[in-house]
Amino acid sequence: PQNAASPHTRACSRFERTRWVVDGAVARANPLAAANPPGSRCPVPLASIAVIGDLQPDNPTHDAIAPAVDHADAARGRDGGTVLEWIGTEEARDLPLAALDRHVGFWIAPGSPYRSMDGALRVIRYARESDRPLLGTCAGFQHLVIELARDVLGIADAAHAENDPDATNLFVSLLSCSLVGQSMGARRGRRPPPPP
Question: Which of 173, 118, 115, 114 is nearest to 151 (CA)?
Answer without folding.
Answer: 118
